[in-house]
Write a structure and sequence with these properties.
single chain; about 500 residues; mainly alpha; 2 domains; globular
Length: about 500
């Protein structure tokens, strides 16, 4: 079920909300949790009920392993060491993820290297498996480190399946979620949280269906349809996807945070204006924050601790490996691995510059370099094959042939009295998908990424003036008009 669908907004969400709080009002606390778990599984199964047994088996397996990692139980009832049990749990989770997400990738590369002809499995990727796998690996490690305070199967099931964050995050910790569900005051409707939740949800919905889905048209045209791209089309294509990805994923996260607030649950912030970043390190401190946190806590630090003697070079190697893992986590393609490697190299250079060279870069220049690096790297992230990368990168540096659409010529003639320059474009074949609307949306995209974000707006509070209410009403109208598309979120595929 999609957040940006009529059935979710007007049926599933209000029914779930009212029944959950009705049960709590009647003091059926455990029943309210059972209902929320059931509702979340229904939400998950709406997409494809075939994969429901997978997530249920994963929940049961990880709960048993996590409980077994409890110190007293391991000492009294198990012949295996905690470390061996943890390794078994992590390997089992990675094996499940690898089977569905990477098996065909491995088979393809084995066939390529060995000349064999093994048949591909063509497995469909179970919804949310990348997210609930990482989330449960963190739970196992925290259990091993004795950071889990309670072991209750119902609470654990709610922690994994809570529908606002189930599909595409944020990646949450057990210690962040369960105490919130246990608080008595969270079992009663909080009208401030409801107002704030609806406000943040609306911002996220607007990001998705009005902004991201508009950029998606041009990104798809440039990546998947056009065979050649001129200078303007190539840059418009890359920038369109850069903005589409951000407004799509941050829009989903805003909606998740807003929905959770309706239930008095605060999810961690996942985006903090990443396109304002003035260095690549700053970018990853702002982009997909919970993924960066997971990789830092459960991949980078364990690698560093495994070294007998830490050195700066070894630290950079661990950082590079962590970024490659981030890239591969996103999908089974060498282009994703290359994307991760590019960011690993960039962050390494960033650290070397700060530690060895120590020349301070002006913030404007830092932003320019960071944004353009991210924009170019996302071409590898989006491209389905290497030819798409070559098509767009070659177009972005092609200054010899730059045909411009008639709309652009008329637009510049209108704003520029010195229009003789554009005479040389007369008679060209204007088969281009770029228009003045594209330029306007790209300008709007740059304005929005440098403006305040939804987190900052929420902290300041909501002032219901006539001005804000009118803008909110207009935005809501645009959203409702756009809902008929029901387009998927990009991270559903990861």
């Amino acid at each position: 079920m999609l957040f940006n669908s009529y059935e979710f907004i007007f049926v599933f969400l209000p029914i779930t909300f009212f029944i959950y709080f009705y049960l709590n009002h009647k003091r059926f606390t455990e029943a309210s949790k059972v209902f929320l778990v059931f509702s979340s599984l229904f939400f998950y199964s709406w997409w494809n009920i075939t994969y429901l047994p997978i997530i249920l088996s994963s929940i049961l397996f990880n709960y048993i392993i996590g409980t077994s990692l409890n110190k007293e139980q391991v000492e009294n009832h198990h012949r295996f060491s905690k470390k061996l049990l943890l390794t078994f749990g992590i390997v089992s989770n990675i094996a499940l993820l690898s089977y569905f997400k990477y098996m065909d990738f491995f088979i393809e590369n084995i066939n390529l290297v060995s000349g064999s002809n093994y048949n591909l499995l063509y497995l469909a990727l179970p919804l949310a498996i990348s997210f609930f796998t990482f989330q449960q690996i963190a739970y196992l490690v925290d259990s091993y480190r004795q950071k889990i305070k309670e072991y209750n199967f119902l609470n654990y099931s709610l922690f994994v399946t809570f529908f606002p964050q189930l599909i595409a995050g944020p990646i949450v910790h057990h210690s962040e979620m369960i105490p919130q569900f246990a608080k008595t005051k969270n079992k009663v409707k909080n009208y401030r949280n409801i107002a704030m939740g609806l406000f943040i949800f609306s911002i996220g919905l607007f990001k998705k269906v009005v902004i991201a889905d508009t950029f998606a048209v041009w990104a798809t045209q440039g990546f998947d349809v056009a065979t050649t791209l001129n200078l303007f089309e190539a840059w418009a294509t890359s920038l369109s996807y850069t903005f589409q990805l951000y407004f799509d994923f941050s829009g989903y996260t805003d909606m998740a945070i807003g929905i959770a607030l309706l239930f008095n649950i605060k999810l961690p912030i996942n985006f903090n204006s990443p396109y304002k970043a003035t260095s690549i390190q700053d970018f990853w401190n702002r982009w997909h924050i919970t993924l960066s946190r997971f990789v830092n806590m459960y991949i980078f630090k364990p690698i560093v601790k495994s070294y007998k003697q830490y050195t700066f070079t070894k630290g950079m190697m661990a950082l590079f490996m962590s970024m490659v893992i981030i890239g591969f986590w996103h999908g089974s393609s060498w282009l994703f691995i290359l994307f991760g490697a590019m960011h690993g190299i960039a962050i390494t250079i960033n650290h070397i510059w700060k530690k060895k060279i120590k020349i301070k870069i002006h913030q404007v220049l830092g932003w320019f370099l960071t944004f353009n690096f991210v924009n170019i790297s996302l071409i590898f992230f989006r491209a389905k094959e290497w030819d798409d990368v070559v098509k767009i990168l070659s177009g972005m540096i092609n200054i010899t042939e730059t045909p411009i659409s008639k709309e652009f010529i008329n637009f510049f003639n209108y704003i520029n009295p010195i229009s003789i320059y554009f005479d040389k474009f007369k008679g060209v074949n204007f088969n281009t998908f770029i228009s003045v609307n594209t330029l306007e949306m790209l300008i709007l995209g740059f304005i929005l990424i440098t403006y305040t974000n939804s987190n900052e707006m929420a902290k300041k509070g909501i002032t219901f003036s006539l001005y804000i209410l009118s803008i909110f009403s207009f935005g809501t109208a645009l959203i409702v008009m756009s809902l008929q598309t029901g387009s998927e979120f990009l991270y559903f595929n990861f």
